[in-house]
């Protein structure tokens, strides 16, 4: 907390112009005198010491604190000497007594400092309480009291000093102080007690027009920390109703949105305005990404960079989303924009990471890798290779090697590509398992199903309980029409890892595709949805089985949801077929064409359009 008030917050224990400063100057003079006199005595006999000339009379400024008489001076001196001799307890008592007598803020602070050095939280609290009694309107005293209670993890005692602190802060700064409290108070362990203390401290400010939005938003954050999401959401709604332009309540609603559709609706309503803050859009995009709603996330980043095109990292994020969505032309534009802005930025300004520039180079390498992938999606293999070649060999990790191997395989060099994945050095030092999985994916991409099967089977024999290897082998077995083997392997994954949503989805989808045991397929897919409710590919599978079972309305709803989240060519095939069956053929053709634009060679989409005689 860095609020400024009448008693400016400098370091926690500042030295100010009062009795303590006078004492420090006096002790310094004594130290100089003590060091000088012995040497002087050796060279000048006392009888020959000339008298000092009379000084011109000077009108001295009045001392900062006239209470610093001789007895008090020596009391302070004794306290300091005790502290320097390691007797912090005695020094504390001496200086706290002096602080009480003089009511001097820096003496109270010095006493607190000694208590902290002596690892006595109780004495530190005793000193700050004495300070607050002696100077009841001291902002620094209230602030220090709050800081100590947080450091000592005593939320139950927080309400009164926190309330006083907020009261003493200048009115113009009060909302800012209130808004900054969650990060500071979040270190306290007892979140429920913290919420109660903040609620009590905020009681005068929750309905005051100047502070109610900040107070309700902050109290909502504390409620969320205390596992009171309903209370937090109610406070967010009230704060938003108080001030529908304020971003704070929306940021709180965004924190609640992953588990509350009502909260997300509030966020979406706010972001519908053209002038919504770019940072809020980017935060929402991160939430959408975690829910695998990449299409929606990309739209939010588009709007963010449109409003603030000078932002640098969001262009890289947008490029990555667009490559994933198979929007290569727009991805290339975004990634080249990122590189141009990064080249113009001062060193260290391109990312939010360390100052060494390492992360900035990693971001550049990632942009080059994504540009390679985007050009490959467009069939520009030469440009794709050129972008990869910019990454120095010592910075290549397995993902870059995989991109290079993919391009080599496309040029008929599959054997050399496999050797590259097996043997080439990589910056991230991948183990043999990671290399095997990358090689198997290369074989699958090049339709060498049997080669991938043999390679994965070899790996599984060496690690019979590796669920990733088992799952990948099951997927290849399906392509080889070894359906019994596939089912056995997937059920093995379900046994070893009961929360693996992808295993339930894969078996449910396979049964659906083969139009067999559909009721069982739906149960499997509902289980997968329960484990990963936001996965668009699982939603697609569930929509597809509903269609096969004749539930076209439910199928249409689910498939639209999947398409909006992740507009993949295979989802286009399913959604288009449902629309076709409902005689909504114009929209079906629109979806088919969009799927083809993203992935013209997708087998499922091509087969569906051919079977339905849906001309492109």
Automatic annotation (TrEMBL):
It comes from the Bacteria. This is Tetratricopeptide repeat protein. Residues 44-63 have a biased composition (Low complexity). The keyword Repeat applies. Residues 44-66 are annotated as: Disordered. SMART domains: TPR (SM00028). Residues 1-41 form the signal peptide. Gene3D superfamilies: Tetratricopeptide repeat domain. InterPro entries: O-mannosyl-transferase_TMTC, TPR-like_helical_dom_sf, TPR_rpt. The keyword Nucleotide-binding does not apply. Keywords: Repeat, Signal, TPR repeat.
């Amino acid at each position: 907390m860095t609020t400024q008030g009448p008693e400016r917050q400098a370091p926690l224990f500042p030295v100010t112009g009062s009795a303590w400063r006078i004492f420090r100057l006096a002790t310094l003079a004594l130290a100089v005198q003590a060091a000088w006199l012995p040497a002087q005595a050796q060279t000048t006999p006392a009888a020959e010491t000339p008298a000092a000339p009379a000084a011109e009379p000077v009108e001295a400024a009045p001392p900062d604190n006239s209470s610093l008489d001789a007895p008090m001076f020596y009391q302070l001196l004794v306290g300091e000497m005790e502290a320097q001799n390691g007797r912090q307890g005695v020094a504390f008592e001496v200086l706290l007594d002096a602080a009480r007598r003089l009511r001097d803020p820096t003496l109270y602070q010095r006493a607190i400092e000694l208590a902290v050095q002596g690892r006595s939280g109780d004495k530190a609290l005793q000193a700050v309480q004495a300070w607050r009694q002696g100077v009841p309107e001291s902002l620094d005293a209230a602030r220090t009291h709050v800081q100590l209670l947080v450091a000592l993890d005593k939320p139950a005692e927080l309400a009164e000093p926190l309330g006083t602190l907020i009261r003493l802060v200048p009115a113009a700064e009060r909302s800012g102080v209130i808004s900054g409290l969650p990060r500071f108070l979040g270190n306290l362990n007892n979140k429920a007690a913290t919420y109660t203390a903040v609620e009590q401290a905020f009681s005068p400010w929750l309905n005051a027009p100047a502070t109610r939005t900040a107070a309700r938003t902050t109290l909502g954050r504390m409620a969320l920390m205390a596992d009171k999401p309903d209370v937090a959401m109610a406070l967010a709604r009230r704060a938003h109703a108080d001030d529908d332009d304020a971003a704070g309540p929306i940021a709180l609603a965004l924190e609640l949105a992953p588990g509350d559709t009502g909260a997300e609706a509030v966020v979406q309503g706010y972001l519908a305005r053209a002038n919504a803050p770019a940072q809020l859009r980017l935060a929402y995009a991160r939430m959408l990404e975690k829910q695998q709603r990449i299409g929606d996330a990309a739209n939010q980043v588009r709007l963010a960079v449109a409003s603030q095109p000078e932002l640098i990292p969001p262009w890289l994020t947008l490029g990555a989303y667009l490559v994933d969505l198979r929007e290569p032309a727009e991805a290339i534009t975004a990634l080249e924009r990122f590189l141009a802005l990064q080249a113009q930025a001062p060193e260290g300004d391109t990312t939010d990471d360390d100052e060494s520039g390492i992360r900035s180079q990693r971001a550049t390498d990632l942009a080059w890798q994504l540009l390679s992938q985007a050009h490959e999606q467009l069939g520009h293999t030469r440009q794709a290779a050129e972008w990869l070649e910019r990454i120095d060999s010592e910075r290549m990790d397995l993902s870059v090697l995989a991109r290079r191997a993919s391009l080599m395989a496309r040029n008929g060099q599959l054997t050399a590509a496999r050797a590259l994945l097996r043997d080439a050095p990589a910056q991230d030092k991948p183990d043999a398992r990671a290399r095997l999985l990358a090689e198997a994916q290369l074989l699958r991409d090049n339709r060498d199903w049997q080669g991938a099967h043999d390679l994965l089977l070899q790996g599984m024999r060496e690690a019979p309980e590796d669920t990733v290897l088992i799952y990948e082998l099951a997927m290849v077995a399906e392509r080889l029409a070894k359906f019994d083997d596939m089912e056995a392997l997937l059920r093995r994954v379900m046994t070893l890892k009961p929360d693996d949503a992808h295993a339930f989805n894969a078996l449910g989808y396979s049964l659906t595709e083969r139009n067999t045991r559909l009721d069982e397929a739906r149960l499997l897919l509902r289980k997968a949805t329960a484990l990963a409710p936001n996965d668009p590919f699982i939603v697609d599978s569930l929509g597809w089985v509903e269609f096969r079972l004749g539930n076209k309305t439910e199928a249409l709803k689910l498939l639209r949801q999947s398409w909006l989240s992740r507009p993949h060519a295979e989802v286009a095939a399913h959604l288009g077929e449902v629309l076709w069956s409902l005689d909504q053929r114009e929209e079906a053709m629109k979806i088919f064409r969009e799927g083809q634009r993203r992935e013209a060679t997708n087998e499922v989409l091509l087969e569906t359009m051919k079977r339905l005689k849906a001309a492109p």
